[in-house]
Amino acid sequence: MPLIDGEVLDRREDAAAQRGTRFAVMAELSVRPMTDVEFERWQRHLAEEFAAEQVAAGNWAADEALQHALDGNAALLPDGLATEGMLLLKGYARTAPWWARCGSG
Question: Which of 3, 45, 51, 102 is such that its CA lies 20 to 30 A from the CA of 36?
């Protein structure tokens, strides 16, 4: 499908503004299952960021924070990518990768 040209985009934005709503153009999105390596990297990154937030908030001691976050992640996804009821995907909008978490809650 071709990208929306400027004229069509302007008309859609104008129509949305008249309805009092916002208009956004979304890039084409492709998704695929996350690989084991990607999952491990994602889990580590997620744990490091969460641990840092907890330390900054004064909730956890710095020397224990990362392990505590890793343990929490492991409890939520006990079988990693194979955890029942979970679907972990890696998505790409054009050429820039982004991460998506799908699930309830």
Answer: 51
> In this structure, which amino acid lies at residue 52?
A
- pLDDT in the model for residue 38: 94
The residue type found at 74 is: A
Q: Return the residue matching tokens 């909730």.
A: 59
For the purposes of burial, counting CB atoms within 10 Å of the CB of 85, is it exposed (0-12), middle (13-18) or buried (19 or more)?
exposed
- Domain covering 6-102: architecture: 3-Layer(aba) Sandwich (3.40)
Looking up tokens 């990693």 gives 80
Structure confidence by residue, pLDDT tens digits, 17-72: 566 655 555 567 788 999 999 999 999 999 999 999 999 999 999 999 999 999 99
pLDDT of residue 28: 75
Locate the domains of the chain by residue range: 6-102
Tokens 């978490």 belong to residue: 101
Can you tell me the distance from the alpha carbon of 88 to that of 94, in angstroms, rounded to the nearest whole number?
Answer: 19
